[in-house]
Write a structure and sequence with these properties.
The structure holds two protein chains of two kinds. Helix content of chain A is 80%, strand content 0%. Chain A is built from twelve helices and no strands. In chain A, α3 packs across α11, α4 runs antiparallel to α5 and α4 runs antiparallel to α9. The longest helix of chain A has 38 residues. Chain B has two domains: 38 residues; 210 residues, MetI-like fold (Orthogonal Bundle). In chain B, α4 packs antiparallel against α9, α7 packs antiparallel against α9 and α9 runs parallel beside α10. Chain B starts with a helix and ends with a helix. Classes of the chains: A mainly alpha, B mainly alpha. At the A-B interface, α2, α5, α6, α9 and α10 of A face α2, α5, α6, α7 and α9 of B. Chain A: It is a multi-pass membrane protein. Chain A: One of its GO terms (biological process) is transmembrane transport. Chain A: It is found in: Cell membrane. Chain A: One of its GO terms (cellular component) is plasma membrane. Chain A: InterPro entries: MetI-like, MetI-like_sf.
């Protein structure tokens, strides 16, 4: 009981940075966003403020109405999401598979591990020119880049998840005379699962950021990043702010979904 | 913080065993270094062979000799050095501002439960917007000058620094705080001897993360909107299909990334040891 409680505490601490914690039992959390919106609105209506630089809330709302009803904003949003998820699944799968392999084989970890850790230190965006040359500036290049972003956190976390299995668990497996397969299926994977989820959760956030980066820096295509490029070149601040709001909302939804999935898949831990 | 050293002083060893132990240590180190170098050497060999027998066209992967030549020429005429210095300057300025403000704000939020209940959710929701997405907005507001880069880098460094500082200060174990109360420390002493040492590892994680994010933001900003610096060099090489320039710039970016990581880790161990001695 004591051990599980401690484990759970460390887990919730490590995922804290990734997660919104809705303790919305009081009105307090709503005060800051409300105040920010009010100040924004008030500043936009101050005399001498150029609406091109600071559009009012109703201008952004009008842009949203026009964009979703007359223009194809939904299509742009879906294009970005599709790209993001394709890259996330490719990179996440590769990352989990590699991480598990490194965790289960110390020799492999000693041979490949240092190279992979050094590779992590290369700034992600520095790969863009190379990736765009290898995979083209179109869809393939973008998805490859997003997959690279999703690969790193899943790799590190699943690797650590397996490598940090307590020694007593290994002893338990020996006492129960479990074979290699039994150890992996019954002890190692369930024990590493929370850490793997942390990696996937973090990869979801990283790949969303990479999606925006790819859309800004690769060839122009339908998607929120492309819309932002257009908004910047045509000086449409309301469009830019709308895109920011959409990007943030998708991030929040991703977070909530990831937390729900995590809770569902790890329900047995709380029993 | 570990107090293991007080419990288990190193056992005195006779000269012979010390040498044997040293040799053994050297051997294990050499073994792991050899294993670690196997993959990079293999990749390098593959690269050299690809270039020698021109399996891959130069526009996809230039020969190592060409990249080496570009690096040497760039160093000789100072163009690489200038680009590196400009990039470093930008990143350090942005990181200094962003991380400093981040640790301060995060520490305040971590210390006050009331403040946290008001601001924390909003703060975390703000964090959901990828920092690169602010670039077009900043470009409209500030043009593509130096201010854009510094603000973007500062923002990229601010968030991790603030979040980890918040976590570190908030999660000081209750027992430590009780100890402080029992010793009747005043606010200042509590801060210096209880809260800061306990939060320091978390703060350092935030700084490391912040520096990595700052370096990323710099590369992105220079790729998109710049006329000098390492990122610009890469964008230029990409447009002219000169991949040797791109790879040379990447090599320097990677080197600096590794150097940042190593320097901060060293600073952290140093500072923590100093804390331990100070607590003695």
């Amino acid at each position: 009981m004591n051990l599980t409680a401690a484990l759970r505490a460390t887990r919730s601490r490590s995922t804290y940075l990734l997660a919104l914690r809705p303790n919305a039992k009081s009105w307090r959390p709503w005060l800051a966003p409300l105040a920010a919106l009010l100040i924004w609105e008030a500043c936009a209506h101050l005399p001498g403020v150029d609406p091109r630089f600071l559009p009012s809330l109703e201008a952004v709302a009008a842009r949203a109405w026009e964009g979703f009803v007359h223009d194809d904003y939904l299509g742009h949003l879906l294009a970005s999401l599709g790209r993001d998820l394709a890259g996330f699944f490719l990179g996440g799968l590769a990352g989990v598979a590699t991480g598990l392999a490194l965790g289960f084989s110390p020799l492999l970890a000693r041979v490949v591990g240092p190279t992979l850790m050094t590779y992590r230190q290369i700034s992600l965006f520095a790969w863009i020119p190379l990736v765009s040359m290898w995979f083209g500036g179109g869809e393939a290049g973008k998805i490859a880049f997003i997959a690279m972003a999703a690969f790193q956190p899943t790799l590190v976390n699943s690797w650590r998840g397996v490598a940090e299995i307590p020694k007593s668990y290994r002893e338990l497996s020996d006492v129960l005379l479990l074979g290699r397969l039994g150890f992996v299926a019954l002890i190692a994977l369930p024990c590493a699962l929370p850490q793997i989820f942390t990696g996937l959760h973090s990869a979801l956030i990283c790949s969303w950021a990479a999606t925006v980066g790819a859309e800004l820096l690769f060839n122009l295509a339908p998607g929120l990043g492309g819309q932002m490029n257009e908004g910047q070149q045509m000086f449409l601040m309301d469009k830019l702010l709308l895109c920011i709001l959409l990007l943030g909302s998708v991030g929040v939804v991703f977070n909530l979904l990831a937390r729900a999935a995590e809770r569902r898949c790890l329900r047995w831990r709380t029993l | 913080m570990s107090f293991g050293w007080t419990l288990a002083p190193p056992a005195p060893v006779a000269g012979g065993t010390a040498i044997a132990a040293g040799l053994r240590q050297l051997r294990t180190f050499a073994a792991s270094a050899g294993l670690a170098l196997a993959v990079p050497l293999l990749l390098a060999a593959l690269w050299i062979f690809c270039a020698r027998y021109s399996w891959i066209p130069d526009q996809i992967l230039p020969a190592p000799a060409a990249v080496w030549q570009t690096l040497r020429e760039g160093c000789a005429d100072g163009s690489l050095r200038d680009a590196t210095l400009i990039s470093l300057q930008r990143v350090l300025a942005g990181f200094g501002i962003g991380a400093g403000a981040g640790v301060l704000v995060g520490g305040l939020l971590g210390a006050s439960r009331t403040l946290r209940s008001y601001i924390e959710p909003f703060f975390l929701a703000f964090n959901q917007v990828p920092h690169i997405a602010w670039m077009p907005v900043l470009m409209v507001l500030f043009g593509i000058g130096e201010a854009l880069k510094i603000i973007l880098i500062a923002w990229a460094a601010f968030m991790p620094a603030a979040l980890y500082a918040l976590q570190g200060v908030r999660d000081v174990p209750e027992g430590f705080r009780e100890l402080g109360r029992a010793l009747m420390l005043d606010r200042r002493a509590t801060f210096c001897t209880i809260i800061l040492p306990s939060a320091l590892p978390s703060i350092f994680t935030g700084l490391r993360e912040g520096l990595a994010h700052a370096w990323q933001a710099l590369v992105a900003a220079e790729l998109l909107a710049s006329f000098e610096g390492l990122g610009y060099l890469m964008a230029y090489g990409r447009q002219l299909f000169q991949l040797d320039v791109v790879l040379a710039a990447m090599a320097i970016i990677a080197l600096i990334g590794v150097a940042f990581h190593v320097l901060l880790s060293m600073a952290e161990t140093r500072l923590r040891r100093w804390r331990l001695e100070g607590a003695q």
